[in-house]
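Reading a protein record of the kind used here takes only a little practice. The integers have meaning only within a learned vocabulary of local backbone shapes. With that in mind, consider the following protein and its fold in token form:
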Amino acid sequence: MDWNRPVESERTTMGRPPPTGVKTICAPGAVEPETADPASLAARIQQKFQIAANVMETSVRMERKDGHRFITDLVEAFPGEVESISVSKPTLEDVFIGRTGHRFWKDKDAEQNNEVKK
């Protein structure tokens, strides 16, 4: 199939979306600090920075266009609470998380650690 040629059906014409069309549904990027108490940190991040912060197993995930710049503010605002931090470009999983609130699959190690803590 030639993706550059539209496919016509009874109701609509479909073709490959332009790259800018795909980018509009992608998250701007993610900042994800790991912490011992992600629920508490997420609530305080939301309060202090007025941004959405989602708890993801042992971390807090936030979508930020300028994530690399935000790290300094985050670590300075909550000294000693961030164990590690990652910054990533948008991925298909970011879109999935944005739409559903969870990852594609759960990490088995994280599940086992949570069971041990209970």
In short: The mean pLDDT is 75.
